[in-house]
Structure formats: structure tokens, C-alpha cells
Amino acid sequence: MEQLLLGMALSIASSLLWPDLPSNGWGWIILISGLIVVFRYRFAGAVLLGLSWAILFFNHELSWLKEQHISLPAQHELNVTVSAVYRKSDRQQLLVSVQSINRQSYWPEPAIRLTLSDKKTFLKRGDKLHIRARLKIPHGLGNPAGFNAERWLLGQGVTATGSISSFKLLYQADSSWRDNWLMKSRQLMQKFRQPELLMALIYGEQQDVDKADWQTLRDTGLIHLIAISGMHIGLIAWIGMALSRLLLQRWSEKLPGLHWLVGIAFALLYSALADFSAPTVRALCMLIIWIALRLWQREWSGIRIWLFALAIMLVIEPWSVFSAGFWLSFIAVGILGVAGFLWRKPSLWQIQWLMTLLLVPVQLVLFDGLSISSVLVNLPAGPWFTFSIVPVALISGLLVPIFPSLAYIGFWLCDLQLDWLMSALEWIQTWGSGWMAISFRQQLLLFWALAGWFIWRFSPVVMKREFGLLLLAGCGLLFAGCQSEPDWRVDMLDVGQGLSVLISQDERALLFDTGDAYQGGYNMADAAIFPMLEYRGIKQLDYLIVSHRDKDHSANWQRIAGKYPQARIVSSSALTVDTLICQRGQQWQWGKLQVMVLSPRSSSGGDVNEDSCVLRISDNQHSLLLTGDAERKAEAELIRLPRQLLQSQILSSPHHGSKSSSTPDFIAAVAPDYVVHSAGYQNRWHHPHPVVLSRYSQSQQWITAVDGLVSFEFSQNNTDIRPFRRLQPWYRQMDAWLVGDQPLK
Q1: pTM for the structure as a whole
Q2: 501-510 pLDDT per residue, tens
Q3: Which of 167, 498, 681, 734 has a CA that sits 20 to 30 A from residue 140's CA?
């Protein structure tokens, strides 16, 4: 049994790492092979069956994207039903299920996340709309650090996103019982200090929680206590069984499983209140399995129950494999089982440090950092939530429609405690952030150290041969520590429709342009630049260069300068009193590199594209030309320079590849071997223009919208080029599949 479950779970989970998604034909071949093999070789057969199911499922779920040519910028007509509404300060975000696209129906109905700029129209679950929207595949920034939007969207089963240009309300649904329940709860919490956190804790309504609060909870390692988990479902089931024993005891003799069934009923009710969110369904699944085994008087080991729940969830909803919460919750439950195996009756301290230690690799993979205060903060906070806040909050939530006065008292007590908690956490953070970003090199070292310790501590074979273990760990640390670093590196970041280039050497960096910032607070400093600086292990930003004032180049300069106040600001505009104004002829030595300003001859204030700072950076063997938004007039000035000053190995194309730039004479003068066009995915300006792409036909080209970050690493006479998306799994390279018949990669 364990072999079948493990094989199915591992094979479906492996889809996270597939370089491409095989076609349906391969899925059917593997399915038939699995059915033949499984009777003789259970594990191998289970692996094949899991692989076939994942291939067939993902192909079927994504097939509509190809049929509707979603890779092409176009308006689509959809009939949809609203599944969820998330209200922001400047817009609404709708999760919808689609009945038809351009009058064509699909099964199952695709799930799409749409943005509606209209804040006045109040939409709710169950409303039916006819809309016109511009759709695109799940697509986020393609950088090795920062938020993975593709994985997050697919983890929710969302196979496209888009923006609504117009809509017509076809049917207005009545408020559901859940909506009324939540509305009454919000009314009771109106004057509280932490109503958003309380709604997230009880009902899973996380969209209104302040970003600063989420950051505080993440940095202190407490974010898992706010999210709905198995503790919530288990506690609700226990409350249901306790009430059943109190009120229905005389019926239990005729119905032996009555108390368990009442417990499941309470858990189902609460799951519905929590909108059957993914964590809730996972916990509910494990509870039902456990109760079913008790009713059937079967004895299963903890590992079998864990594997069974994992396999069921992955088979029912393979999209769960992309959900970070899915793996965090299942791994956390598995660690509890490991603690019970190691110590039989583990103490709270033993569980806490084992949980913290074994979740380190998961946190590194998902978040590129660690909460260094997690253990100390969780020791008092864990029991506090378990025995005080969560029970009172859940009972109060259930009492809302029956005894609102009692519910109010319970909510007030929980709000008071949450306010104390947040105040304590803010005080702790005054002593320093509890979050520690870990660079890629440090992650490698940490992985090896953890692997070596775990083998030494828990492997009885190696414990008898400790010298061999030490040799193994030493080799691993040597391997990780001796990864050669390049002399210098250029990272052309993916910042959407904008520009930002990071040049680094010896843990020091120069940043050219800062990307854009948008209404609602989303900005490229937090989304891309800061994560990449941390990922590369940059300790000091020496230069912040802002080519000109255009928002997609300069929007985040103050935010970056605030975090790195020692950085020298260079710009065509007087951003500060100490700004060095770009002017042709300026040059300086920066470590191994020579930096030279080639344009403008004199800045008119940085408000026009022709004012863009144009920089050439060279180590006398390799060279890079950064052009900002320079256009024809600036290019005409540049080509008058001596050829050796302008010619460069790598070029960041002027003005994102606009046809108003990149004249043939300029391209001939620069003669680049490599060209990177920094542009947004399906941007409305159609950058880079096809005419410009054809002009660079003699050069190797990349587009950040398609290829993500493009990294150039220089060591002596060697140039190592790494376009990020081309090295990533299939789900981060869906464009290749949508424009042709090749496998999805």
C-alpha cells in the first residue's frame, strides 16, 4: 500500500521539475504501461500511473489556452460566473469560472483571475457577467529571486489572468449564507483594532490584512499561526464531538459512530465558512481518513495516513503541487510524525526546534530566507494560539448567527490578544528584523550542512562510520564553497515594462535604473531589485544610476537610496543636491571595471528620452553599453564618437526596442554580439518592434518578457550567458507551447 501511495505522490510531485510537458499521446502510452506493470511491480507501476495522470490532466486543463490563441494580445468575449471578489483600494480582482470564451464552451470550466478598475459596481459571488477582456497566460517576473507568480496562480488552478475592458451584468445573485455570516462578523468587529487579522484567523479572509502586518508575521515566523490549518479543523471537530456527547448521548448506542459523524459535520460547516480553501480541504481530508479508520476499526501507521492523504489530494487536484501552502502544511504534519517516531512523547521544545530545522530547506526554496527569531517567538506564541486565541475565536465564529452577544465578547477577547501580540512583535522588530535573506551561495552551504547533520544524527549505519560521514559532509561543503564566482556579472533584470540592470563584483554593485512603481504599492524595488541584491549576496551598493526621469526607469530611486544611503547617485536630473549629473566625458574606475559616460553632451533636466545617461562599462576584455531610452537624435550623436568608445560586446537596446531607436548606423557602430530588450509581457507599445529585431539579426537576442532575467558572467576570457526562463521548468515557459505544436516548455 505504501509503495503505491508513495509512487503516485512522487510522480505527480515531479511535475514541478519537468523541463517540458509531454503531449497527450505520451500520457496514454505511459498509462497503458503503468496498468501492465503495476500488478507485478507496484512502485514502478504507481509511478507510471501518476505520471500519466499528471500529463493528461495538465494538457487537458491548458488546452483551451492554445485553442483561443491566448499568447496573442487580443480581446476575448467571455460569459463568466464570479467565484470570489477581492477588493483593493483602486480596483477589484475577480476569480471567475468561465462558461464560454468567444462562444465556445469548455469542460471543466477554466478558472481565470481578472482585474476590474471599476470600484463603484459592487460584485459578489454568484453574479453572472458577459465581459470583454484581454487575457494572458499565468505570467510573472522571470527572476531567480522574488515572487513566483506562475507557481502561485497555478497552485490555485488559475490558468489565465486578464483585465476587463467592459462588462454587462447578466444575473445578480442573492447574498449567500456565508456572505451574510461574514457580514455579521465584520459588523461585530467594526470598532476592533485587529479586525482584519481576526477575519483571516477565523474565516481565512486574508485579502484585507495590511501588508506591513503580513511582513511582521513572516519575519517573526508566525504567519503559519494566522493561516487556517489542521489545528482549526481538528478543534472544530472536537467541539462537535463534545457537543454530541453532551446532547446526543442516548442516541449513540443505536448509532455507534454518531459522535464522529457530528464532528465531521462541524468540520464540513467550518470548511464551508472558510470557503473550502486549499489548506482547509487538506486538513478536512486527513480528518475524514482518520475518522473513517476509527469507525472501521482499522489500524494504520501515521506514515500511511499521511501518504494516503497526500496521494488523494494530488490525484484530486494536481494543481496543488504548485501551492507553497500545500507543501508547508503537509511537510509540517510529516515533521510532527517524525518527532513522534524519534521521541514517542516529544516535548513542545523538541517539536519546535525539529520543525524549525527541517523546514529550513523548504523556506529557502520558497522564500530565499529564514526567520531567525522563529524558534524563540514560536515557543510562547504557539501555545498561546493553540490554547487561548484559536479556540475562543472559532467558538465565537460559530456563535455569530445564534448568540451574537457572546460572539462579540469572544471576538473582543481575541482582538485584545492579537493587538498585544502585534505590539510585542513590533517591539521585537525595533531590535532588528527577524528575517534573514540568504544568498544563493549561502543556501548551497546550508543545504549541505543540514544534510550532513541529518545523516549523522539519524542514520544508524553512518553513526558507526563517523569518519565516512565527516568525509561526505566535508566534500559537500568543499563543493559548495568552491563554486567559482565570476570576476563580474551583469544581470538584466525582468522588471516588466521598464529597465533595471545590476552589475556586481566582489559583493559590491552598481544599479542602472530602477523599474516602475504602480498604484496600490506594487513596485519593482520590492518585487525584483531588492530580492536580487539579496540573492546575489550584495553587501554594498556603490552607485545608483538613474538614466532619466521617465517613470519606468526612475520610479523607485528614493526607495533604493533609502535602503542604501551610501550609494552615489548619478543621473541626468538633479534628484538630490549631491547628484552627479551625467555628462559625456565623465569616467571613473570601479574595482576591476572602467565606467564611462557617453551621453548626453549636456542634460536639459532629464525629462526627455534624449537626456538618458548612456554608460559603457568595460574590463578591457568584455564591455557593456547601457542606453536607457536614447532615441535617434542621441544615437546620431553617439556614432560620432571614436569607434572603440562605442563598440560593445553586450547592448541593452535603446528605448526597449522601440522603432524610434536602434538605427542601422547605430547598430553598425556598436556591433554588439548580444542584445537584450527589456520589455513587459504583451505590452501595449509592442516593444521590441519586429523591425528592430530584424535590424539586430547579426546579434544573439533576448527579450526579458519571454526569457526573464538574462545574466552574463565574465571570467578572464570566458563569457557565461544564462537566460533564466530557458533553464526553468515547463510552467515558466508556456509561450513556446502556445505559439506552436511543440511540447510545453
Answers
A1: 0.88
A2: 999 999 999 9
A3: 167
